[in-house]
Amino acid sequence: MRTLLLTTAVLLAPPAFADSARDVHRATLQSTEIGGHSIAYLDLGDPADPAVMLLHGIPTSSFLFRDVAPRIAAAGYRVIAPDLLGHGASDRPDDLAAYATAARADRMLALADSIGIDDFALVLHDVGGITGWQMVGDAPERLSAVVATNTMAGLAGVRPAPVVMQIMGGEVSPMEAFAGLDDPAAARDMAKMWLDQGWSGPGSAPEAEIDAYGADLQGSSAAYSGFFAMAVPAFLQGEEGLKADLAAYEGPTAIIFGENDLFFDASIVVPDLAAKLGTPDENITLIPGTGHFLQAIAPDAYVSALTEFLNTNLEK
């Protein structure tokens, strides 16, 4: 297991970006229709290079990868970063079943098909892991590598955001919890709750980040209700099947983790992931002083760890 040493400047000063960064990012996205829904995605790099798919979690989108995707592409990879259905610039259908895990995984595999990608390295962040683990089980032969970045494969060490704890405790239904997301102020408050915990606690997330993801959350009540009503219960009930799927995967795996993640206790979650994925110590990188959204907080360290693993394990 490696621990990357970072300068204080990197840890305390995430990359600045203009107020229009969200709009600029969206202008770089392409889109295609998958199963009757428009799916937006970032596609960078030479199509002849090995492909890497970056899957986001909540409350994010491909916008999370805006600083790291170009650098990964520059290292010799074709980078695909989709907006999952209900997120970012992708469609937001009202049908809750559209957000079930199997449907989400099928959609990502179909996206790869639609843009001519047969196999790819799958890089998972946050609850993007829930979709990704389904892909590992459904199509392991298509995955040239699997990288877990601040995600989980079970509940051990997980410290959910307050709204998620209320849902899991039965205090509110998913539909009740996310009913207010059509309201801009409520959407921004929800984004702030997740981002503050994802940085380093109350008041820590940059205001521009909160504004960007608050805007993305507007109108996504069905997406979040559907995810927590359809995908999360199935994930919690299926850990034994998940363990079997991950144990059966024979490709190379890596774990890159912000060590100070307030959602996922690295001292518990990283060993759990390593055991289930069979990840060797040399492919585990901890980034100290870094929280959950390490792609935005410490992009240099993230890209360095990821490209070193890819360069070692993928054929160019």
Automatic annotation (TrEMBL):
Keywords of this entry: Signal
A Pfam entry, by short name: Abhydrolase_1
Matches recorded under InterPro entries: AB_hydrolase_1, AB_hydrolase_fold, Carboxylesterase_BioH, Epox_hydrolase-like
Domain AB hydrolase-1 residues, every copy: 50-295
Annotated SUPFAM superfamilies: alpha/beta-Hydrolases (SSF53474)
Residues of the signal peptide: 1-18
Sections of the chain in a coiled coil: none
GO molecular function: catalytic activity
Alphabetized Gene3D superfamilies for the sequence: alpha/beta hydrolase
Protein name (record): Haloalkane dehalogenase
Native source organism of the sequence: Litoreibacter roseus
